[in-house]
Amino acid sequence: MSKIAMKSLFTAAVALFFAQTALAGVKIEHWVSPSGARVYFVESRVLPMLDVQVDFAAGSAFDTAGKSGLAAITRGTLDLGAGDRDESQIAEQLADLGANLGGGADTDRASVSLRTLSARDKRDPALDILKRVITRPTFDLAILEREKTRTIAALKEAMTRPDSIAGKAFWAALYPEHPYGRQAEPETVAAIQRDDVAAFHQRYYTAANASVTLVGDISRADAEKIAEMLTAGLPKGEAASLPPAPGAPAKGLKKLPHPASQAHIFIGLPAIERGNPDFFPLLVGNYTLGGGGFVSRLMKEVRDKRGYAYSVYSYVAPMRQPGPFQIGLQTKRSQAQDAIKVARSILDEFVKNGPTEEELAAAKANLTGSFPLRLDSNRKLLDNASVIGFFGLPLDYLDTYQAKVQAVTIEEIQQAFARRVRPADLVTVTVAAD
Amino acid sequence: MRYKLMLATLLTAGLATAAFANPYETTLKNGLRVIVKEDRRAPTAVQMVWYRIGSMDEVDGQSGVAHVLEHMMFKGTPTVGPGEFNKRVAAAGGRDNAFTSRDYTAYFQQVPKEKLEDVMALEADRMRHLTVDEKEFAQEIKVVMEERRMRTDDNPQSKLFEQMNAAAFQAHPYRRPIIGWMSDLEAMTAADAKAWYDTWYVPNNAYVVVTGDVDHQAVFALAEKYYGPLEGRPLPKGKPQAEPKQEGTRRVTVKAPAELPTLIMAYKAPTLRDVDKDRDPYALEMLSAILDGHDAARFNKKLVREDKVALSVDIGYDGTTRGPGMIYMSGTPAEGRSVADLEAALRAEIGRVQKDGVTEAELKRAKAQLIASQVYKLDSMFGQAMEIGQIESVGISYKKLDRMLEKLQQVTAADVQAAARTWFNDDALTIGVLDPQPLDGKPRRPAFAGRH
Asked: What is the DSSP string of A253-290?
């Protein structure tokens, strides 16, 4: 009994200490390393661990013409041999340290991330592997061919799945003749040679093209040393130039056949780039339209009232150049046309009138009230800080987020939607719809 | 030894709260248990309400009712209208959802810490006062059918798993899919859902797990205030429905539109019942890590990278379930290699463990990963609540979690070899094969020229 009481006292003391550190808020420190890489750091001492992410402007938008898939293959083979270590040595050494290497390539960005314990005997060798992987990948020819084969098989498999077919057709229609619309095909992956991969690495995995984000149990001085250590071996390079602004989408309906029992439906268009002031009105408005999960209009009308779909949503995904506004749903193939009608009428009405005062208040209450949930783990801090770093958002982005949400008016939502979500330009893709 | 080292690390990092005094628990007079794990890293909290009731408690003809009821739980009570639950959680800046497994049904909210009381009041209300409205049910059952179409009917791998599972179990209710057979969903009524709720949704069949920036005494007081007035009721006694011993390999084939075949090999396996005395569940967990715990673990290194017989291979073992256990190996053969080639290769890998065992280096590596994962898991409040809830659902106290970790650290190479010999037994094996069909019903196009 007395033992328990003592433990409780101890807990209270420690807890007080933690409460103070937690309430200090998120301080993102930023500097440029001597290598030229931009660095973003959040000190978080509560857990004995460290997360590091190195982002490069090296996503699929930078794929060489006719070789779509090059960015993904380059990123995918970075850690399959680096410096004097082969792929097995890298994986085994990481496992011995209890460290995890992750990341991937999307349209704008290629990322390599490391999670390690922060004790020096674990941290230092794990960081050394990260450095080798980004600076000295060997791109062994046999391994490259093996990974190409696996990628081609996965692509072919994906092209039998209704959701993958719909996704691919959607992006192609949104971005005709634009890097965002080009996607890997078996033929384009087969065309990739080792020289292409090495050249892509040399061109895009450079210090000037990198942002490094560190979150965890290290000091600012250590963060500076680590960031420089990681990037000093990269070519200095220059920041990759942005892909051009996308042109008009291939608006209208694209209907693709498939034997599935459910139709997959995507509706959307290129809408907005990162950092554009229309983002906050779109974000707040979209909460009511289809972003607010169970309480959105789309969810109420399509799912709750009619039982048309398990999942129905809309979102805005800002990218370097205007990323998509998108509505998605799946429904029994025979009722696909009815479901599209309902979704379109909800969208059209919303674009015209925006949310009601009550809906706007609910959207703001959730988006500002849920703010602490966006930052309550090192993983979430890393995700936020790396986005701020990679896209060059203001360092006080998180500090001003709630105020910017609060300031949005119904008129601003109407205007932003009218500018960004023009019903006449919408692309609709259906797969397996009757 | 390494385990002790880890504790030392945690202590120096000031994590004593997480490692020792925490969590706290109490039991209300109505039988509801409340478990609180304080974690003051950020001003947020997670509430989870777990009901000791899952699809394994259903009867034939009513498969899927546990999950349908989970959907209906958002449809209102006399004081909280339909859809109002989600609305209030959203207004509190929270996120909420629920999930149904074979063993349990659980509901959760993640909220700013000041809003914990609001969501405790909401969960307590629907624990005993749910309205199962005919009209709401009629819409929601359609949503569940769409969910089944999406998750299973149009997903060849899920379909294969469903069929394999239905063959592997005959007497035990694990043979039924959690989402339910489509014809059972079509025949289900609001009265079925209501009966399920009335029978099983009582405080003595539930427990509440709260993690986050909270004081446990305050949470206990809130629990007393909101859940305390609910009345408990004796639960019906279930039948054991034990699975008879399998006496020979079973094979299932599923044809579905796809490009590549899939193979799944599922062996009946032990589950943890006695944390201190059991040995094999720990050994099989370490074996899974040795075979598939990292990119250069045996399966990926040998079958994907060296022999190129597979495009991908996985192993899955969950040693903590209410019903009988299984250990699964699954994979996709590489182009030009057959399902039979992959099956032979997987058998060869298991044979190698049975004959030669595993190395000390492999075991040490798996344990190092385990130690690190114990630190990483503290990064997620939701994950910590899940861990407590899940272990409690099988009737093992969360207090045993540390002991289980110790037992894992004590696994020897000889234990792993012995477990492999015992459990990878052909007579207890069920094999499922996905036979891919062209989408348009026409013969496949000629092989792509660039293939290697």
From this structure: EEEE----SEEEEEEEEEEEBTT-TTHHHHHHHHIIII
Q: Please give the Cα distance from B181 to B153 (Å, whole number).
A: 10
| First and final C-alpha spacing in chain B | 48
pLDDT of residue B446: 43
Q: A398 near A267, Cβ under 8 Å? A: no
Residue B47: which of B122, B118, B116, B126 has the closest Cα? B116
Q: What angle do CA A12, A16, A19 make, to 5 degrees?
A: 130
Segment 404-433 of chain A within 8 Å of chain B by CB: none
B406 labelled catalytic = no
Q: How is residue B113 annotated by DSSP?
A: G
ipTM of the complex: 0.91
Contacts of B138-143 with C-beta under 8 Å, sequence gap 24+, read B138/A307, B138/B190, B139/A304, B139/A305, B139/A306, B139/A307, B140/A307, B140/B68, B140/B71, B140/B72, B140/B75, B141/A307, B141/B68, B141/B185, B141/B188, B142/A306, B142/A307, B142/A308, B143/A303, B143/A307, B143/A309, B143/A310, B143/B71
Res A9 pLDDT > 90: no
For residue A305, pLDDT beyond 50: yes
Per annotation, catalytic residue among B70, B117, B140, B349:
B70
B169-200 residue pLDDT tens: 999 999 999 999 999 999 999 999 999 999 99
| Close Cβ partners of A287 (under 8 Å, ≥ 6 residues apart) | A296, A363, A366, A367
Are A350 and A288 in contact by the 8 Å Cβ rule? The answer is yes
Q: Which residues pair with A104 in a beta bridge?
A: A111
Q: Is A310 on the interface with B (CB under 8 A)?
A: yes
Please answer whether residues B395 and B299 qualify as being in contact, where contact means their C-beta atoms are separated by less than 8 angstroms.
Answer: no
| The CA-based dihedral angle spanning residues A279, A280, A285, A290, taken in that order and rounded to the nearest 10 degrees | 60
Quick check: B6 and B374 in contact, CB under 8 A? yes
* B294 to A92: CB separation less than 8 angstroms, yes or no: yes
Indicate the pLDDT class of residue B443, thresholds 50, 70 and 90. Answer: low
Task: Determine the residue among A3, A20, A47, A148 to mutate to test chain B binding: the one whose Cβ has the most chain B Cβ atoms within 10 Å.
Answer: A47
